[in-house]
Amino acid sequence: xxxxxxxxxxxxxxxxxxxxxxxxxxxxxxxxxxxxxxxxxxxxxxxxxxxxxxxxxxxxxxxxxxxxxxxxxxxxxxx
Length: 79
Hints:
Layout: E1 2-5, E2 15-24, E3 27-34, H1 47-58, H2 70-78
Antiparallel strand pairs: 1-2, 2-3
């Protein structure tokens, strides 16, 4: 998993894009979720719900999490 942000300050800036890969039924899937992007199909009013869903998925005990820059990403994801 990797996130892109609008800046480096997790207290002020926001998550721009979330990219993740997962295995399901033996196949690897890659997805990119544009959260805070000019061309995003996700409305700003839906953003909290999407982030809540992602947090739930990532907190599952059976999830094996591999971060690109984990210490940075976790600060944004914990908000």
